[in-house]
């Protein structure tokens, strides 16, 4: 079973290949991806590494968390799963998000709700 790790505070010079080679010292790396900004094409400063086993992932966390890379102390920990609907309340299949019960028609006085 593979384990996904979050790697934060990366210098902008880090590439997928260099990230993979750094983590391969601690075990087999299934994938390594530095997240890129769509508009500028620059690295965002974080990425994800998928290790083959939980033991290898824990060894990488212990060995690399807080290590200085190009003058920046990187952060390595277990990646949290994406939360459903985690966003700024935009439109989804279930309708508009961020429902407010205190605003709308019929909730007090003339002209609708209160603010």
Write a structural description:
Helix content is 17%, strand content 30%. The chain has 115 residues and is an alpha+beta fold. The chain has a domain at 3-77: RRM (RNA recognition motif) domain (Alpha-Beta Plaits, 2-Layer Sandwich). A four-stranded antiparallel beta sheet has the order 2-3-1-6, covered by helices on one side. Residues 3-81 form the RRM domain. This is RNA-binding protein. Pfam families: RRM_1 (PF00076). One of its GO terms (molecular function) is mRNA binding.
Question: Which key features would you list for this structure?
Answer:
115 residues, alpha+beta, Alpha-Beta Plaits, four-stranded antiparallel β-sheet, 2 helices, 17% helix, mRNA binding, repeat, RRM2_NsCP33-like
Topology diagram in text:
Elements: E1 3-8, H1 16-23, E2 29-36, E3 43-51, H2 54-64, E4 68-69, E5 72-73, E6 75-78, E7 91-92, E8 95-96
Antiparallel strand pairs: 1-3, 1-6, 2-3, 4-5, 7-8
- What is the CATH third-level topology name of one domain? Alpha-Beta Plaits
The CATH architecture classification of one domain is 2-Layer Sandwich
Unreliable segments (pLDDT under 50, ≥5 consecutive)? none
Shape: globular
Give the overall average pLDDT. 84
Number of β-strand runs: 8
Structural class: alpha+beta
Strand order of the largest sheet: 2-3-1-6
> From N to C, what is the helix and strand string?
EHEEHEEEEE
- The gyration radius over C-alpha positions equals 21 Å
- State the fourth-level CATH superfamily of one domain: RRM (RNA recognition motif) domain
Please tally the helical runs, counting DSSP H or I stretches of 4 or more residues. Answer: 2
How would a textbook summarize the main sheet? 4 strands, antiparallel
Top CATH class of one domain: Alpha Beta
- Helical proportion? 10-25%
Percentage beta strand: 25-35%
Give the termini separation. 50 Å
